[in-house]
Known about the structure:
heterodimer; A: about 250 residues; 13 strands; B: about 300 residues; alpha/beta; Rossmann fold; 2 domains; seven-stranded parallel beta sheet; five-stranded parallel beta sheet; 18 strands
Amino acid sequence: MKVLVPVKRVVDYNIKPRVAADGSGVETQGVKMSMNPFDEIALEEALRLREKGHAQEVVAVSIGPQAAQDTLRTAMAMGADRAILIRTDAELEPLAVAKLLQAVVEREQPGLVSMGKQAIDDDMNATGQILAAKLGWPQGTFASEVIIDNGSAIVSREIDGGVEVVSLTLPAVITADLRLNEPRYASLPNIMKARKKPLETIEAGSLDVDIAPRLKVVSVSEPPAREAGVIVESVEELVNKLKTEAKVLP
Amino acid sequence: MTALVLIEIEQGQVRQASRSAIAAASRFGDVDVLLFGEGVDAASALSGVRKVLHVPAAPHLLAEPTAAFIAQHAEAYSHILSPASATGKNVLPRVAGLLDVQPLTDVIEIKGDDTFVRPIYAGNALVTVQSADRIKVLTIRSSNFDPVDATGGSAAVEVLDLPAEDEKSRFVRVELSDSDRPELEVARVIISGGKGVKDARNFETLLAPVADKLDAAIGASRAAVDAGFAPNEMQVGQTGKIVAPELYIAVGLSGALQHLAGMKDSRTIVAINIDPDAPIFKVADYGLVGDLFEVMPELAKAL
């Protein structure tokens, strides 16, 4: 089985995002970029499936500008066998991303798509579900455990108040939640080796997919700031203030 | 214009988050609700609902048949909504995929029939977007919308057939954590622990007594969940639950950006931390610098 792992290049999770002064978006120029953390987890899961013998090949795919090559090299340094860049300078919405991924899936014919549940930039949490819908495949979202068994994926899913287990007939789309695994680091020798792994570039425009935006960004703004309050000296003072000042305790 | 809201039932009642989604949907016009499984009386009694579409024999909201069913009925509606619950987040983007529209998730404000505000970058920015899609598919952050009343209505019920099973996806089992505490999303008071709580047992011995006195839900930071101190369903933050209780007590929790994104809309925030420079104090209304192992027993006694 082949596993396809979409990886997104996003502002590093340690960087506090800054809203552009003209309200058009968030500053990304000169900001450290990294692989979306949920995609790292999804990639790790694909690598483990290969190590257990369930998968033979792990293919990373990224959609974005030329610089997204760096993210793909990181994916290959972690262990992906090869990579595909769908090159575009356009800002894409999840629907467009899912359609481009659908085109890649139709070409590559993977048995499983393993992807992050959401990207930490737009926080949309939608691309995996849209892709599964477009392909007519079952979906295992917010996965905390994946077991491959006889042509099925048994997926434990994080739900409100607990865990739900579903059985999906492969091929399927799985989206990774935090607890699925702890991603490995790329070792220096593997970073060197990744430079020699194949990275194919395909122009998004050549895929004959409608990627026109459906949304117009009216404005991007900072959320209202919360003011720091007061430091109390004792538990007694705290309880007293919660009762008489904040009036949140009877 | 008419909106359709996918609702969820819990212990015979319509979930508060679903009632918040109905309140949001009422901005667009008439509201129909879609119910799978039991709870039709509770659904019919909801305030502000025109019609209940009821699919009786469908206990598990698996994404594949549920989304296919909604997509089949979608053309009668201008907007399709649900709360941004685990079910809503699973099903509605799939509906959008089937309809070939771009969904909008975690909407916090409705500015018009086609214009919505949602947080991005873990709530560090808010984006206002205008959708050109013919049907708007939205999940709603329930803490930003006051729920409609659970009673007072008498909506008509239309019974619909179970959608065809999708043989590619099968329900195996559900494991719910049994707890007498209120759920995080609806609790009036939340007490959350971070890495400073040090282990799972301390959640029980230090946080639970205070939670018991306040009828509070217990939450945890991502760091505490990652360290195995608390299960993931207790996680508050960008990657967990988004909450806005009357009172939020953060214990031994530094206040990472991703955590603040999940609780900074709480009405009153209390921080208890041994580190006076912890970022949590920058958003707290009341800060207490101290050792939680001493402070928490004292607090339990004082309440």
